[in-house]
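Protocol step 4 of 6: structure prediction from sequence.
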Amino acid sequence: MAIVFPGGTQTGPASIIKVVTTDTDAAVTTTGTTNTWQQINSFNTNFAVSDTNNQVLIIISIGQYGGGGGVGTAWAAAANGTRIKLGTPSGSRIATGFQAYVSHQSHGYSTQWTTAYTPGTTSLITYGVQFRAQNGTTTTLGRTLVNDNVSDTYAGRALSSITLMEISV
């Protein structure tokens, strides 16, 4: 079996060494201003690999987030508070791990992202999630923006999670 990682292809046996998941249903809000990223502390998970060559497979699942209609939200994985695995910024465009779009302020939306990261150390690292609302707008995690108290499914609450897997390479 071959597993393709960003740093190359693993042709020998690869294995999952350990898996840790942190779930959260915390309600968090951020309002967009220039260059304001917010760490979502309820995702923070301490994790260390057993070998400096091993990778961490990061799976982020945002069960529900909301914002004003026509609003984009930037998301990123973080290691010790620093965003990792970002795209390349160009001109005025920011570097982000993944992005999502909200088309209606009363509805909840979900998004997922998976990436492999090589920490290069066996020291304990705190992994987490950061998000950034579009300038002048608000994004919420764990609920819709208007937070309607109704039994309709669009206003439900959902669980979000970060899963970390140590992969031997």
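Step 5 (inspection) to follow. The chain has one domain: 20-87+95-164.
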